Amino acid sequence: MTVSIKSPLTGSQLSCHGVVVACSGTKHAGYNVSMIFTSMTPQAEKQLGAMARSKFGVG
Question: How many structural domains are present in the chain?
Fold first, then answer.
């Protein structure tokens, strides 16, 4: 599966490839999807980490 993530702070976009390992939720409440990302470059990993630590990351 490919996921495109766009930062609301900088507008930068990141495209990640991965495998879905878990999914829960409903179409009314929304879904939580857990993925294992594969073949990430060090730059993409750094950018994803920065997004996760921002005020918009799930904590």
Answer: 1
Beta carbons of 48 and 56 less than 8 angstroms apart: no
Look at residue 48 and tell me if it is in a domain: no
CA distance 32 to 21: 11
What pLDDT was estimated at residue 59?
55
pLDDT digits (tens, 9 = 90+) for 18-52: 999 999 999 999 999 999 999 899 998 988 888 88
What per-residue string of b and e applies to 10-41 under the rule 16 or more CB within 10 Å gives b?
Answer: eeeebebebeeeeeeeeeeeeeeeeeeeeeee
36 inside domain: yes
Tokens 């930062």 label which residue?
Answer: 7
Q: Which region holds residue 6: left if phi is over 0, alpha if psi is between -120 and 50, else beta? A: beta
